[in-house]
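User: Hello! My lab partner asked me to get a predicted holo structure for this protein. The small molecule is flavin-adenine dinucleotide, SMILES included with the sequence. Please write out the structure tokens.
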Amino acid sequence: MNRGKIAIAGAGLCGTMMATRLAEYGYQIDLYERRPDLRKTDISAGRSINLALSDRGLKALGMIGLRERITTEIIPMHGRMIHPTGGENTMYAYSGRAGEYINSVSRGGLNMTLLDEAEKKENINLFFEANVRFVDITNTSLKVIIGDTEITKEYDVIFGSDGAGSAVRRTLQAQSSKLRFDFQQKWLSTGYKELHIPPTENGGWKIEKHALHIWPRKGHMMIALPNLDGSFTLTMFTPFEGPVGMDRLVSDDLITQFMEENFSDATIHIPDLLEQFHNNPTASLGTIKCYPWKYNRTVLLGDSAHAIVPFYGQGMNCALEDCVVLDTLIQKYDHDWDKILSAYQEVRKVDADAIADLAEDNFYEMRDATADPVFNKKRIIELRLEENLEYYSKYSLVTFRADIPYHRAMKQGRLQNKILYDIAKKVENPTTVALEPILEEVNAFLTNRM
Ligand SMILES: Cc1cc2nc3c(=O)[nH]c(=O)nc-3n(C[C@H](O)[C@H](O)[C@H](O)COP(=O)(O)OP(=O)(O)OC[C@H]3O[C@@H](n4cnc5c(N)ncnc54)[C@H](O)[C@@H]3O)c2cc1C
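Assistant: Hello! Below are the structure tokens for the protein in complex with flavin-adenine dinucleotide.
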């Protein structure tokens, strides 16, 4: 069956997933990717090597039959391992319930698995080094440059899943006053640099394998996620300017001193620290909000519609969840694309905005609050509530409840946090305090506010 012709710009995480799902319905797909085939060329370039994959992303992978396979390619991370400047490291579980954890996955590995799956479909044409330049939203046609050839082709639907710097979105921006296209980009004054802890000689992990490590330093921080080969990818988040700014790290002595003062228990595991520091780029982070996401039969998907900062570990999960939402609407509206695309942007925008705001909040929580004693008391109470009673923290609602939309998770989670923080301030011993009265107080607070 041929249901129609669809073009997808960007064979990253969600473009490839969407192509596979649409091919299953019988569409003829042209999937255009600007870069070379990453299964044949190393193009990681030292940026964002691994990602936290959680329930929303796993559910989406399940939709195209990849959930089982991916579990062999991930490392469970059961909690946050906090590395203070002095004293003992402490592990805080992500949930009080067994089986609720997040997973470290290789970005390149996951993209390759998705590409392999897409390539199995006869009705997907994959084009690499194919640079989408322009979309004509009136005729639903797309201009793409493949090698020396420029091609313009009409489709029934065009998806722009070409990431945060989307060319499809730029086409809409270029006509923003005519289309009344809203666009907002907010940069963080903090940038990031990736570093790498190599494996032990036997291919083991030099620090705890099943944790997301955090070095919160008020004003800046570092995190580490494990890789399957025994190494860790560290990401240092530091302001571009200021007392702990990247602009101060101008000599080898200053870099070494800064790293040893702040992250000594990681630095000891990086023999070529200075080389890595100089070679790996410092990159920017930002949030992109825009609307509408669809004009006629052209639509934005994933980061091109809603790029967020990485502090909730949800950007990819959200992008993959877009595909699940679209899939539900394809079934609901029986392939009527005008209805599907209108409903998609209507239901999804509020959730994309919610996770964008939550991700910004979490930056401050990871950087500062994880070093705050009241925050840590609150966290202990929450974990006990989850372990013993029917309760989901904000983190759990966002991360482990793929059945709850982000905007609802945000509202409930923020209310819970407010009341629990006040309770935690008064609690002497969070490990023994009675839980039932606390849950009653939380539920009473939520009533009439949700
Ligand atoms: C430092 C960092 C850490 C992160 N950590 C996490 C995390 O732990 N968990 C999480 O869920 N998310 C995380 N994210 C977010 C995640 O990387 C993105 O949300 C996700 O990659 C979005 O997927 P996408 O398919 O929309 O876009 P992308 O993965 O960016 O894919 C876009 C694709 O389009 C291609 N392309 C671009 N322009 C063109 C063009 N003109 N023509 C053709 N092709 C084009 C690109 O080459 C690319 O392959 C992180 C992001 C960063 C920066």
